[in-house]
Design goal:
Helix content: 40-55%
Number of domains: 3
Structural class: alpha/beta
Largest sheet: 9 strands, mixed
Strand content: 5-15%
Number of strands: 12
Radius of gyration: 21 Å
Distance between the termini: 44 Å
CATH architecture of the largest domain: 3-Layer(aba) Sandwich
CATH topology of the largest domain: Rossmann fold
Length: about 375
């Protein structure tokens, strides 16, 4: 991997949205240098080519390195010595580059790692189990990987740290943007004793769809994913689904059959063949010899009813455009094209559907969120 290819990969990480399969396939076909050149010349032929071109002003590899140096972070790219090669299992959806900040090296830290994820609104039972188990995993020499969120994520990080172990926090924002803000101290401690990582450039805030794309990184970095408390409709299940697609083990911790926070775990066991984990030793056993899962049933079918949301019927295109809107105020079409990383034609089409659905409305030459948004 020469310097021009590394620079091109860093530029691509600024241009595309995380997990963009179309851009990934395009780069695989042409190579990173030729792909950036085509986007710069407006000759990529990609559907989102105009949106990608609009972000070119953000893609300065040397400026990105300088920003990293000022805060003690680094950028690692595909094909370099520090790259965790298990991320290549994501195929065309693999990240082009990662921003890393921490005392431990990501590649070595993730060689013996497992993901521990779960509900943000976790119960005291879930948090207690999570802390105790993650301390045990750390004592056994395993790195605990999670997302830094409230609830189970935070308990996983704290449990590993309490045992003097290494933990990796994968953020949906830039590594210099603590999210949630209340976990600024925890994330700083993880950087001091473990690793904080993101595929979003420095200064990037969170967007709803980036939490889901972040989850695939958590699944791909690790050898197994352990789910401790999750509702049926939970972002945690996206991490479990990604792990299944990557042929990684998925384990779920059971809880009270009356608890909505355990319904997602029970569903993973019953419907998706997740391995039931009743103690940390169950997890450690799976991480050694291969284990066979035995699906088990639940009792209360009401727990499997999936609540409906206003955005359920929106396509990925509409969700990306809606996520590009500010929470307040108006935004121009050109700004939406840039922030969504899509073509003007797709953004305009999405705005029409969002307007009919009561999510946004035109305001002169601009657009604004309303009602259901």
């Amino acid at each position: 991997m020469n310097e021009s290819e590394v620079d091109a990969l860093i530029a691509l990480a600024h241009l595309g949205e995380p997990g963009d399969q179309s851009l990934g396939a395009y780069v695989r076909k042409l190579g990173p240098v030729a792909a950036v050149a085509a986007i710069t010349a407006r000759k990529s032929g990609l559907r989102d080519g105009v949106g990608l071109h609009a972000r070119l002003g953000l893609a300065d590899p040397q400026a990105a390195r300088d920003k990293c140096e000022r805060i003690g972070a680094e950028i690692i790219t595909r094909g370099t010595i520090n790259w965790p090669t298990q991320l290549d299992d994501l195929g065309d959806g693999a990240p082009f580059a990662l921003w890393v900040q921490g005392a431990a090296g990501l590649r070595l830290a993730s060689l013996r790692s497992l993901a521990v994820v779960g509900a943000r609104a976790a119960s005291s039972y879930g948090e207690s189990v999570c802390r105790d188990w993650c301390a045990t995993f750390a004592d056994a020499g395993w790195t605990v990987v999670s997302g830094g969120a409230y609830g189970i994520d935070a308990a996983a990080h704290r449990g590993a740290l309490s045992a003097g172990g290494i933990t990796v926090c994968v953020l949906a924002s830039g590594v210099d943007v603590a999210y949630p803000k209340a976990h600024e101290g925890l994330i700083a401690r993880i950087a001091d004793e473990g690793v904080v990582v993101s595929e979003s450039p420095l200064g990037e805030g969170v967007r709803r769809h980036r939490f889901l794309s972040r989850n695939r990184i958590i699944a791909a970095l690790t050898r197994a994913t352990v789910v401790i408390e999750a509702s049926v409709r939970s972002g945690t299940t996206s991490t479990a689904n990604a792990a299944v697609q990557l042929n990684r083990h998925v384990l779920a911790v059971p809880g009270p059959v009356t608890s909505p926070m355990s319904a997602g775990c029970h569903n993973l066991i019953r419907e998706q063949g997740a391995i039931l984990a009743s103690c940390p030793e169950d997890v450690l056993e799976v991480l050694g010899p291969l284990s066979v899962s035995i699906p088990r049933g639940g009792t209360d079918q009401r727990l499997w009813v999936v609540p409906q949301r206003p955005t359920d019927d929106l396509t990925t295109r509409e969700v990306r455009v809606l996520d590009a809107f500010p929470s307040r105020g108006e935004v121009s079409l050109n700004k939406l094209v840039c922030d969504a990383g899509m073509s003007p034609m797709d953004v305009t089409a999405a705005l029409g559907i969002l307007s009919i659905g009561g999510f946004v409305q035109p305001s002169g030459m601009s657009w604004a969120r309303i009602g259901r948004a």
